[in-house]
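Run log // design_07
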């Protein structure tokens, strides 16, 4: 418990006794995994990499090693590294069960990547993917084909896209749902040689690709979008912002962690259901104070009408969207 300190002075006044702690969150540990082409002698399966020396085994200057180096330079350690052969699905399977992996960066295997993210979502392990594609036309085509709300296709039009994508993944892992990604500075190390014209940037954003550029020596994410642009063939930007998807996932997984501990030996009684509703309210309020969600309605927890062992919690909350544009309408008289 927190002890209140009594001031050791008799002088009248207002004295503050405070304790600082990290906000409780079910997913405070967000680690990044990298999947990509590696050297012929690279160890198979998932390798835990703590230092650059550990990454030497992944193959000199291989795609996987470049991404792992960029992640380590950005302060993401340890990194889970998985060499991918012809079959990317097998490589993604190697990290499927690791709960703390929240972000995955890859150099290819788009369809297997999207399928992996969907499977993780179904299994209650929300994670976000970043796919590196160097050329703007290829990136746009891949994003349209995948149309996945948990996958961002990263493009910078240069030769260092693997490092750009890894730095973006590191930023997502660090900031989570509370981060603002439009115009955000990447923890990028090394030389950046990417270049995209205004026309290419517009084309990429319309296709659901996240473009990057260098501004004054700093590598920035122009606007963070997912590859989800269509629902049932019709244009839909509901899941377009990376921050929106991260917010949904973070709130849902936080709620799951909050009530999971209470499952053991609980009776489906009114007292228990009230307790679960209180727990969910506390978690939602914490997310609202963080600015991740805008508002929420009090959770309603009830027993399932057909199965007495099932307890149904109904939640309603609205996500606070990230501002991407400010339009100033000026009426000027001369």
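design_07 sequence
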């Amino acid at each position: 418990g927190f002890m209140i300190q009594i001031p050791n002075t008799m002088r009248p006044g207002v004295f503050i006794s405070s304790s600082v702690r990290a906000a409780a969150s079910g997913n405070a540990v967000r680690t990044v995994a990298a999947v990509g082409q590696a050297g012929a002698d690279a160890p198979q399966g998932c390798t835990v990499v703590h230092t650059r020396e550990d990454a030497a085994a992944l193959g000199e200057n291989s795609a996987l090693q470049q991404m792992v180096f960029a992640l380590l330079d950005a302060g993401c350690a340890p990194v889970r590294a998985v060499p991918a052969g012809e079959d990317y699905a097998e490589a993604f399977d190697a990290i499927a069960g690791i709960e703390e992996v929240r972000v995955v960066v890859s150099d290819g295997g788009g369809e297997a990547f999207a399928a992996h993210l969907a499977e993780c979502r179904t299994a209650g392990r929300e994670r976000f993917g970043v796919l590196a594609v160097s050329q703007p036309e290829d990136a746009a085509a891949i994003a349209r084909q995948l149309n996945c709300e948990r996958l961002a296709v990263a493009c910078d039009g240069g030769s260092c896209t693997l490092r750009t994508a890894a730095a973006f993944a590191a930023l997502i892992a660090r900031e989570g749902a509370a981060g603002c990604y439009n115009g955000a500075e990447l923890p990028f190390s090394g030389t950046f040689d990417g270049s995209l014209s205004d026309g290419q940037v517009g084309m990429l954003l319309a296709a659901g690709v996240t473009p990057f550029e260098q501004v004054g020596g700093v590598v920035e994410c122009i606007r963070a979008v997912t590859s989800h642009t269509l629902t049932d063939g019709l244009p839909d930007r509901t899941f377009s912002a990376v921050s929106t998807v991260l917010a949904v996932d973070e709130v849902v997984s936080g709620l799951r962690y909050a009530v999971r501990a209470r499952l053991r030996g609980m009776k489906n009684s009114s007292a228990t259901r009230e307790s679960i509703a209180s727990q969910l309210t506390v978690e939602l309020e914490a997310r609202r104070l963080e600015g991740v969600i805008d508002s929420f309605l009090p959770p309603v927890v009830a027993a399932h009408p057909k199965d007495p062992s099932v307890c149904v919690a109904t939640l309603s909350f609205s996500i606070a969207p990230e501002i991407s544009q400010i339009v100033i309408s000026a009426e000027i008289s001369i």
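The longest helix spans residues 270-290.
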